[in-house]
Write a structure and sequence with these properties.
single chain; alpha+beta; six-stranded antiparallel beta sheet; binds adenosine monophosphate
């Protein structure tokens, strides 16, 4: 046996081989590892001289058990080695990894038998351990195993061991366990290790879902595995993954979200730390508590508000806690008879919210304010008393001469949550005298051929003791060119001397100490035809037989004679020979009625404007664009009237009800006016579409464009004539109690005879519509350059503020449509005007007109001229044209340009720098000082070019400076020139 070849010696492992014995993948589960056993493995070897078990050590000198066989010197070898029973566990497919060495047959001298270089691997499945029984024919062959590397004796001498590793798959396996068997047929082989394992997809956490250990199927199919959300998380979309046959997880789908108050950290969901919150499930981190809130505990879904701070139901958790607003400030009341406009400033502290609204409570207070009670009755708030988003409200229909207190409260989305006492701003007012409201109900009691008897109800709001009623009537056909006025002490009247079978229109208005109220709407009545002497609609009056007609007529005559002493009857007629009562126009105080005070706006429009039949209107072309739609020119042909040219304002389609009302409000206002210098309303079309307002046509369009088109083409008298017309229209408006608020050349229209008429009426829209109107800090929209300082500062719009605007219009007219204050910004204009600066006289402007402008621009509105004074002044100038010869570019102007009339004379400034300083134009002063324009003489010679050189290029200051220089020059030569 000396010559029996040796197979291997395990302790001869060389370092090159070490890598093959390292640990296995984590997705492999061992069913058998021969290396793990340090005692005898006890495998069955058959025949017994075949495979033999020997002990060795591995590379770490750990003892291991190996099997070897090397019967190459003998024939017909059939040596079996069978493992112990290996439970299958959950495996469906098993892997057998063999590490072995095999000796090269060529390297064995004197081989007698047939030396082999392979061995065979078998397996057999059983439901249970069969002990030592072994029947080779029951085994199934897995494969013949050949060595990739065999070794020679020389190799051994060189201490190089060639270890082979082979892996074979077996499956599907189904029974409870199995055996492996190694058949040697004459090789020289050593089984170093035998490892049997199966693969699994190991437990893992993906997208916050855990997936358990999963054994793949034997087939190629993937195993779908449902994951479970980690603690403190919930499924957003069912988590799933697939386990491949190789034990790898594939295609994660779905995910879990950390619960409220938990955030993802690594593969877990952890509670939010104190000071942090998370209000909804998700995988975002917890957020820091927003301002004025805190979370003292960990795991907070929301942060609690600090004391006196709140969160409304609609507030998101991420929003800061807020508090109720402070009270409104600076309440201003503007009383107009029995209505008051309340206006206030935004609260100093809005509580950190944007949803601030205002509520206004009206209280009626006794003198001394000791006893107040809630306002009862028909007090109206425009737009409403509560939930106001703007800082203004109009309260109408108050009682005349009564004390009221208004409490204005600011509220926001958390006011209801606070138990703190509420804060109000209060204002107390006393209403003025007021004219009565219009008579609303008129009844026809009796009609005859020549008379009509009427009665009516007292106005709903008499606002005082009614002194009498004015009854105005006229034949419908005559269109108000001839009418009669009667005055009645009571609430009935009989109109006598009428034409038979004729339609009459009639209006009634009541008068108190405060003047006339608004007129009723027009009522239509018809006298009886000749064939009837009496008709009656009132059941109280019974028709009698025709034979008694004479008696009735006689009675009428008596009534007429009796009433004659009660009524003053007057008639104005174009036909003096008609048998009418003599006409005397009563000195009635007509007042403008705000159409917005009508609950039903259509009532206002029908009261003040005539409904035109759309078929009477022919549209020719578009001449302009208004806020609500196109403005067209066209013709109006009414029955039995001459065709006239008209302007037609249309309301574009798709309007809202508010737009329709605002559009028509202009007609409701215009329809109340009747003056040659106010644009005349012909009527409206409201029953057809498009809705239209029809006015007289003004061939030359708006005044500003007209003047720019005709620069320097008119005589001064022509210009003054235009100004006179505008002033006369404004006088009429101010007499009516109407404040225009947007008087500017662009809102004056000019006809072919150069007659100027005031236009652009409306309420809210007046300023919305004007492209010049800019928002002030107080929220209203105001055409800054045309508006008086008090109207800008606190919306004190009066006829005196209209007078300021008129002054600007005079300036626009005299400068042929120049833009007031040129390119200065609105802010600079406000500042300059406030500091006393005024526009300089336009070129060649008569001093008297410039003086008129300066008077209109008095800071104290009481010092501004009234429109009747302006009309008289202009009339005087027109009558005496030489008064217009003195031109304002003279020295009087610079002094006037400074409101601060401290007596400083232009001549006292000895350098341009000093003068500019007095004008608050320091930046210019620096330039001038720097450029050594220091003496008056030098200054006087300064040309426009020179200004450009030193950097003064804005037209405004340049003009101002040039006109001041002219002033200096003239002053030096002549001394002051009187205005
Ligand atoms: P308004 O909406 O009133 O500002 O009108 C817009 C433009 O239409 C004006 O600037 C005028 O050019 C023109 N326009 C308005 N009314 C008339 C009118 N009665 N006659 C001629 N053109 C008018």
């Amino acid at each position: 046996m000396d010559c029996k070849p040796s197979v291997l010696l395990l302790f001869l492992f060389s370092p090159v081989c070490q890598g093959h014995l390292t640990s296995h993948h984590s997705n492999e589960v061992n069913l058998l590892d021969s290396k793990a056993s340090q005692g005898e493995l006890g495998w069955i070897s058959y025949p017994s001289h075949g495979w033999e078990e020997i002990s060795g050590v591995d590379e770490h000198y750990t003892p291991i058990r190996t099997f070897q066989v090397c019967n190459v010197m003998e024939y017909s070898q059939n040596n079996w080695l069978r493992t112990n029973w290996i439970p299958r566990n959950s495996a469906q497919k098993i892997y057998v990894e063999l590490k072995f060495t095999l000796r090269d047959c060529n390297s064995i001298p004197l081989v007698l038998g047939t030396c082999k270089e392979t061995f065979n691997l078998y397996y057999m499945e059983t439901e249970e351990d069969q002990g030592d029984q072994f029947w080779e024919h029951q085994f199934s062959k897995i494969d013949t195993i050949a060595a990739d590397e065999s070794f020679t004796q020389t190799d051994l001498g060189d201490r190089i061991l060639k270890l082979n590793t082979e892996v074979r798959e077996v499956g599907p396996v189904a029974q409870k366990g199995f055996y492996l068997a190694f058949q040697d047929v004459g090789a020289c082989v050593a089984l170093v290790t035998v490892r049997v394992y199966f693969k699994k997809c190991p437990f893992t956490v993906r997208n916050l879902a855990t997936f358990p250990d999963t054994v793949p199927t034997d087939s190629q199919a993937l195993v779908e595995v449902r994951g479970s959300c980690v603690n403190n998380s919930r499924e957003a979309e069912p988590p799933r993954m697939y386990c491949s046959t190789e034990g790898e997880w594939l295609v994660p789908i779905g995910k879990c979200l950390c619960d409220v108050a938990h955030e993802p950290r690594g593969v877990t969901c952890q509670v939010c730390r104190p000071g942090f919150y998370k209000s909804s499930p998700g995988n975002l981190r917890c957020s820091k508590c927003p301002p004025h809130s805190h979370a003292h505990q960990e795991g907070s879904a929301h942060c609690s508000c600090e004391k006196n701070y709140f969160r409304s139901e609609a507030d998101p958790s991420s929003m800061a806690c807020t508090r109720p607003p402070s009270s409104p400030r600076n309440v201003i009341s503007v009383i107009n008879e029995t209505s008051v406009i309340l206006d206030w400033s935004w609260p100093a502290d809005s509580g950190g919210r944007k949803d601030v609204t205002f509520n206004v409570v009206c209280k009626r207070c006794s003198a001394g304010q000791r006893k107040c009670e809630a306002c009862r009755g028909a007090v109206r708030f425009l737009p409403r008393p509560a939930g106001l988003s703007n800082t203004t409200v109009t309260v109408a229909d108050l009682l005349a001469h009564t004390n009221y207190t208004f409490e204005i409260e600011a509220l926001n989305g958390v006011s209801a949550l606070s138990s703190e006492p509420r804060q109000f701003a209060t204002v107390t007012i006393t209403t003025n005298q007021a004219a009565p409201s219009p008579v609303a109900v008129i009844r026809k009691d009796r009609t005859s051929r020549n008379s009509i008897s009427l009665s009516w109800l007292e106005p709903e709001r008499p606002n005082g003791i009614i002194l009498d009623y004015e009854v105005k009537f006229y034949e419908k056909q005559e269109q108000e060119t001839s009418y009669t006025i009667l005055r009645a002490k009571g609430t009935n009247v009989t109109l006598n001397g009428l034409k038979p079978d004729t339609i009459y229109l009639l209006q009634i208005r009541a008068r108190t100490a405060a003047g006339y109220g608004g007129s009723s709407r027009k009522f239509e009545f018809e006298t009886s035809p000749d064939s009837f002497s009496i008709s009656s609609e009132n059941s109280q009056v019974v028709l009698v037989a025709i034979s008694s007609a004479v008696a009735i007529i006689l009675l009428s005559v008596v009534v007429y004679l009796l009433l004659g002493s009660r009524f003053c009857g007057y008639s104005k007629s174009k036909h003096p020979d008609e048998k009418r009562l003599p006409f005397v126009r009563l000195p009635g105080i007509r007042t403008y009625v705000d159409p917005h005070t009508y609950e039903d706006p259509t009532q206002a429009i029908h009261e003040f404007a005539r409904e035109l039949d759309a078929s009477c209107i022919a549209i020719d072309k578009v001449v302009g664009a208004g806020e609500f739609g196109e403005v067209c020119s066209g013709r109006l042909k009414q029955p039995s009237k001459k065709e006239t040219c008209v302007a037609i304002k249309t309301l574009k389609s798709g309007y809202t009800e508010t737009q329709r009302r605002d559009f028509l409000s202009e007609a409701s206002i215009m329809g109340q006016f009747d003056h040659p210098n106010i644009i005349r309303l012909e009527g409206v079309v409201t029953r057809n579409k498009p809705v239209m307002i029809v006015t007289e046509y003004m061939e030359n369009g708006s005044l500003d464009c007209f003047l720019r088109r005709h620069d320097a083409q008119f005589t001064v008298i022509q210009l003054v004539g235009m100004l006179r017309g505008i002033a006369s229209g404004m006088k009429y408006l101010s007499d009516m109690g109407y404040v225009h608020r947007d008087l500017a050349a662009r809102n004056i229209l000019v006809n072919s005879n150069l007659v100027c008429k005031v236009s652009d009426f409306g309420l809210s829209r007046v300023l919305e519509d004007d492209p010049e109107a800019a928002y002030t800090t107080r929220g209203g929209k105001i055409p800054i350059r045309w508006t008086a300082p008090e109207a800008i500062a606190y919306r004190k719009f009066t006829s005196a503020s209209d007078a300021w605007s008129y002054g600007i219009v005079v300036w626009e007219v005299m400068s042929y449509g120049e833009r007031p204050y040129w390119e200065m910004s609105n802010q600079d204009v406000i500042k300059a005007v406030d500091e006393g600066y005024r526009l300089p006289p336009p070129m060649d402007c008569p001093a008297a007109l410039y003086q008129l402008m300066l008077d209109c621009w008095q800071k104290d509105r009481n010092n501004r001229p009234k429109f009747d004074q302006i009309v008289s002044l202009l009339d005087k100038l027109i009558r005496n044209p030489s008064s217009l010869k003195i031109i304002a570019n003279a020295p009087s102007s610079p002094e006037n340009m400074l409101l601060d009339r401290t007596g400083a004379d232009i001549a006292t400034f000895c350098s341009m720098g000093d003068w500019l300083e007095s004008m608050h134009t320091l930046s210019c002063k620096d330039i001038f000082n720097g450029a050594s324009y220091s003496s008056c003489n030098t200054l006087a010679k300064t040309s426009t070019e020179d200004f450009k050189q030193v950097g003064v290029t804005i037209l405004g200051p340049q003009k101002k400076i040039v006109s001041s220089i002219t002033a200096l020059e003239t002053h030096a030569k002549n001394g002051p020139v009187p205005v």
